[in-house]
Design a protein that fits this description.
By secondary structure, this protein is an alpha/beta fold. It contains 13 helices and 17 strands. It starts with 6 loop residues before the first strand and ends with a strand. Pfam families: Sulfatase. Residues 6-385 form the Sulfatase N-terminal domain. Keywords: Hydrolase, Metal-binding.
């Protein structure tokens, strides 16, 4: 790598499950390009996000902070302007971080006029990034491109993910086999990738930093041809779940609330005519099959990006990080989406390709140590030779990328979820608790997973003997000592990670004392 010209490429694919990588042996997913990148880098197999949904999880990814510290807990909860992030820190190294896609950032309202349009959306751009192509949910730039190509989208955003009319669907395929009205070369993933490659073409003589964000495989679960037919639903296993929806709901009040919340057509899957919670087996298998097809579409465009970097000589000057913001239940426990406490919502893919010689020894390796989304910001800053802010909750992954494992590396992961509904008070009313009580935190190691709620019963799962998290052990008398031990571990974690921006500074008569 040429020292004076390092580049950083942080790729995030929305709602990608950590097990959905063909290199890990998934029976349906095809990800040859991510597999190849992992073979030339490092694949992290126990990587977890910090929170859900989209805005909060991206905030943790980009600020290096746990939810308990950044406090932007919902799509729409303002992010305190005092927090730094990876883009602001990279600017101190002379970079102009460019965004392709979205960060789902809710602006701090305290210094904004009441009429500022930033107060009407949770999809503002995180400070520090320059929006090379901002593509939030409205997707106006992409829709304009489709209109210019002659597509009839009189309803604008409402029409862009409508199923192709008049499509002849075979009897052995579900509704989500029907493709989009446009082919794959006109999808939002293709449009975004085209724009990024065009942007790269003018930046071969200066270092760059880009955050590239795929919408997919985020729902709606509708894929352009040929990705709609890439996986036969007959080859797809049914999700792990209780024998009945009612039996599932009995596990916990919050799970029952979430299943009820998602039990209406269109709530989870835009333009879908059926309720995914109670859909029949064919439709569930088809939804899963289409999700896998969307991952293959993302992988195709990832391959285009890597191929371009190699062709232009940028590949060996670029740190490449590929991950997700949060994952997807995909029908497990009858649930869809990501707003529930199971591993399937928090376990993420992570592949890092470091071009430095120091990383050669670990190329093609897999790291099964626990890593977290908050580690990404410190890793990038460490790689750039920049100091990591004291406030960061994560740790640099460079020692792992170089083939080592620090002796004090974490033995568990921690994640949180704020499920309050400030505007509607639906969660609060349904569960009989206050907004500030609508939260849980989880600690998960290789043996147990403990989930502590502010005002609801706790959960304890044996991850060795019950990996699908079907049996709550928290209320069993013989498990009382284990529950206590994990509750103490949770308290230790929160005490040691509470906001510590200034805590290792001390003002004396001789001046400021500061410890790293």
């Amino acid at each position: 790598m040429t020292a004076q010209r390092p580049n950083v490429l942080l790729i995030c694919a929305d709602q990608w499950r950590g097990d959905c990588i063909s290199a890990l042996g998934h029976p349906n997913v095809k990800t040859p390009n991510l597999d190849a990148l992992a073979a030339d880098g490092v694949l992290f197999t126990n990587h977890f996000g910090q929170c859900t949904p989209c805005g909060p999880s991206r905030t943790s990814l980009l600020t290096g902070l746990y939810l308990m510290n950044h406090r932007s807990g919902r799509n729409g909860t303002p992010l305190d302007a005092r927090h730094t992030n990876v883009a602001l820190e990279a600017r101190k190294a002379g970079y102009r971080p460019a965004l392709f896609g979205y960060t789902d950032t809710s602006a701090d309202p305290r210094d904004l006029d009441a009429n500022d349009p930033a107060l009407t959306t949770y999809e503002s751009v995180m400070p520090g990034f320059e929006a090379a192509l901002h593509l939030p949910d409205e997707m106006e730039e992409w829709i304009a491109d489709l209109l210019a190509k002659g597509y009839d989208l009189s309803g604008g955003r409402h029409d862009v993910f409508k199923p192709k009319p008049g499509f002849d669907r075979p009897a052995d395929r579900g509704f989500r086999y029907i493709p989009t009205v446009y082919p794959a070369e006109h999808s939002e993933a293709a449009f975004l990738t085209d724009a990024f490659l065009k942007w790269l073409s003018a930046r071969r003589d200066s270092p760059w930093f880009a955050h590239f964000v795929f919408l997919r495989p985020h729902p709606p679960l509708i894929a352009p041809e040929p990705y709609n037919a890439m996986v036969d639903p007959a080859d797809v296993a049914m999700p792990a779940r209780a024998a009945s929806l009612e039996a599932e709901k009995r596990q916990h009040p919050m799970l029952a609330y979430e299943l009820e919340r998602m039990s209406e057509p269109g709530r989870y899957d835009e333009h879908s005519p059926f309720d995914p919670i109670s859909a029949d087996d064919l439709e569930i298998r088809q939804m899963r099959a289409t999700y896998y097809g969307l991952i293959s579409e993302v992988d195709h465009h990832l391959g285009r990006i890597v191929e371009n970097l190699k062709a232009t000589g940028e590949y060996d000057r670029t740190l490449i990080v590929v991950t997700s913001d949060h994952a997807e239940m995909l029908g497990e426990h009858h649930a869809w989406g990501k707003e529930i406490y199971f591993d399937q919502a928090f376990h993420l893919p992570l592949v890092i390709r470091d071009p430095r010689r120091q990383a050669d020894a670990a190329r093609g390796s897999r790291v099964d140590a626990f890593t977290e989304a908050v580690d990404i910001m410190p890793t990038i800053l460490d790689w750039l030779g920049r100091p990591v802010p004291r406030a960061c909750d994560g740790r640099s992954l460079l020692p792992l990328i170089e083939g080592g494992t620090p002796p004090d590396w974490r033995e568990a992961v921690f994640f949180e979820h704020d499920f309050r509904t400030v505007a509607t008070q639906k969660a609060e009313t349904t569960l009989g608790i206050s907004s500030d009580q609508c939260s849980y935190a989880a600690v998960r190691d290789r043996r147990y997973k403990y989930v502590h709620f502010a005002a609801l019963p706790p959960l304890l799962f044996d991850m060795v003997n019950d990996p699908h998290e079907t049996q709550n052990l928290a209320d069993r008398p013989e498990m009382a000592a284990t529950v206590l031990a994990y509750a103490q571990k949770m308290l230790d974690w929160r005490l040691s990670h509470a906001d510590r921006t200034l805590t290792n500074m001390f003002i004396t008569k001789d001046g400021l004392v500061s410890r790293p």
